[in-house]
Design a protein that fits this description.
Blueprint: E1 3-15, E2 20-31, E3 37-39, H1 45-48, E4 66-71, E5 77-83, E6 88-91, E7 99-106, E8 109-110, E9 115-120, E10 125-131, E11 135-137, E12 148-154, H2 170-183, E13 186-191, E14 200-202, E15 206-209, H3 219-223, E16 234-236, H4 253-259, H5 262-266, E17 275-276, E18 282-287, E19 291-295, H6 315-321, E20 331-335, H7 357-362, E21 367-370, E22 376-381, E23 384-389, H8 403-406, E24 408-412, E25 417-423, E26 426-432, E27 447-448, E28 454-455, E29 459-462
Parallel strand pairs: 12-13, 13-16, 19-20, 21-23
Antiparallel strand pairs: 1-2, 2-3, 2-6, 4-5, 4-7, 7-8, 7-11, 9-10, 12-25, 14-15, 17-18, 18-19, 22-23, 22-24, 25-26, 26-29, 27-28
């Protein structure tokens, strides 16, 4: 009989000012001769773990009765919550802007305790890795100003880490992201879309595997590369063309909602009336009273024929999200997949998005983050800073060819993630490169202006 290994995972789909959503799951591996391993396909789970048909996500079958316990800085138990119906649990009655640790008990045993096992491309198997540090920090109270905030952004990242290379640098960028999360007070992670797209094609035409519509597609593309930070900070995704039927045969939207717990987090505490989901994925969330982030769905669907932000179901949400007037947050930050301004070389300005620009201006938006093009770009148009960050998993080496049309200030073809820091009236944006084992793990990539001159000035955006 073949041997199998089950590797458990823990992650935080949501952190609020007074509650946290803790989730867990596992991936299964068949152990082959010579110690090599093969990830078990979702369709084969019932052969090794009947009657299980899923491994992770909001709808996954429970692994057993579970209890989440949360502790304060002194190690004292603060609160706890239990479930026997799901693999996720809301824990409430927490204090705002406070650091906690936690542990998860499933079937009377600590879940994912001790040394974990991580994928090694060299060995084609799981090898001994790190231990989980299960900790998080709650958000400021929604009526309290947020004096500062640090967060990270990755885009077009889901190509997978099964075999890292210069063309698939996701693991290297993930290494830098983990280093940043361990040395900075990063509170959450945004994505600019194309979350899972490690697809394989038969003869380059017929899709056969790993597009994101099954749980096993998510191991190499999300849960393994980011496992040691997603148990401490939550991820806020946006939808890209590879996450829908726009580019691929499969529409991964249901799987994205399930594995990122979109509906659960938007039905939890503090989330009422802050989302528009059918069709598409639009939502907004606050960090204190002074910062709000807005996710826009810029994808196309065949049943509509246009980008989903034009769908009549979402007009009320969009108008409300970019309303002006007393009580508006000082920083309102949209993020999405398709860039309003991009110099290419493959993807250029998304003209249909330009109808949103008057709303951005009305709401006092100063920065917009997107992906789609596999490089870094920074444009400034009528006082708004537009960033393209789509090289956390793939990078495109070609030089952009429409700098004038995109009003480009600087760009780079290097793989990266963005580190954003807001302190009072200033936003600092840094593009951090990947870690390959040498050099500064938090070194910024080299940026050049359209004339080819290296740009050494930091990117600082100030409120008007």
């Amino acid at each position: 009989m073949p041997e199998y290994h089950a590797e458990p995972y823990i992650y935080l789909p949501q952190v609020n000012h007074s509650s946290v959503l803790v989730a867990w799951g596992a991936f299964y591996f068949r152990v082959r001769s010579g110690g090599r391993m093969k990830l078990v396909d979702e369709d084969d789970l019932d052969h090794i773990h009947p009657p299980r048909k899923d491994t992770i996500g909001a709808q996954s079958a429970p692994y057993g009765p579970a209890r989440v316990e949360v502790f304060d800085g002194s190690g004292a138990l603060v609160t706890a919550a239990s479930t026997h119906e799901t693999n996720h649990c809301w824990v409430t009655d927490l204090a705002p802007d406070t650091a906690y640790t936690y542990r998860l008990i499933v079937k009377d045993e600590l879940w994912a305790d001790g040394q974990r096992w991580d994928w090694s491309p060299e060995h084609k198997a799981l090898v001994p890795g790190r231990t989980y540090v299960n900790a998080f920090k709650t958000n400021p109270h929604p009526r309290s100003p947020a004096p500062s905030l640090e967060f990270a952004i990755i885009g077009d990242f889901g190509v997978g880490v099964k075999d890292p290379s210069a063309k698939r640098p996701q693991q290297y960028v993930a290494n830098a992201l983990v280093a940043a999360a361990e040395t900075h007070d990063i509170r959450f992670l945004l994505t600019t879309g194309d979350n899972i797209y490690a697809g394989k094609h038969f003869f380059g035409i017929v899709p056969i595997a790993e597009h994101g519509d099954e749980d096993d597609d998510w191991f190499f593309t999300y849960f393994q590369p980011y496992r040691y930070i997603i148990n401490r900070i939550c991820t806020y995704p946006s939808i890209g063309n590879h996450d829908t039927g726009e580019t691929e045969e499969q529409d991964d939207r249901d799987q994205v909602e399930d594995n990122f717990y979109i509906r659960e987090r938007l039905s939890g505490p503090d989330a009422a009336s802050r989302a528009s989901l059918d069709p598409g994925m639009f939502y907004r969330f606050a960090f204190g009273s002074t910062i709000e982030l807005v996710c826009l769905d810029t994808s196309k669907e065949r049943f509509f024929g246009k980008r989903l932000f034009d769908h009549p179901n979402h007009q009320s949400f969009i108008e409300s999200a970019f309303a002006a007037g007393e009580g508006s947050p000082r920083w309102r930050i949209p993020f999405c997949h398709h860039p309003p301004f991009s110099a290419g070389p493959r993807h250029h300005n998304t003209e249909s998005l330009h109808r949103l620009i008057p709303l951005f201006q009305r709401a006092g938006v100063r920065a917009v983050f997107s992906g789609h093009e596999h490089n870094f770009q920074h444009s400034v148009v009528d006082g708004i800073h537009y960033f393209v960050s789509g090289a956390a998993g793939k990078s495109r080496s070609g030089t952009p060819d429409e700098f004038v049309e995109a009003q480009t200030q600087s760009w780079s073809a290097k793989p990266h993630f963005l580190h954003v820091r807001i302190a009072e009236d200033a936003m600092h944006v840094r593009a951090i490169g990947g870690v390959t084992g040498v050099g500064d793990p938090l070194a910024e990539i080299e940026r050049r202006n359209p004339a080819g001159t290296v740009m050494k000035e930091p990117i600082v955006i100030r409120l008007v």
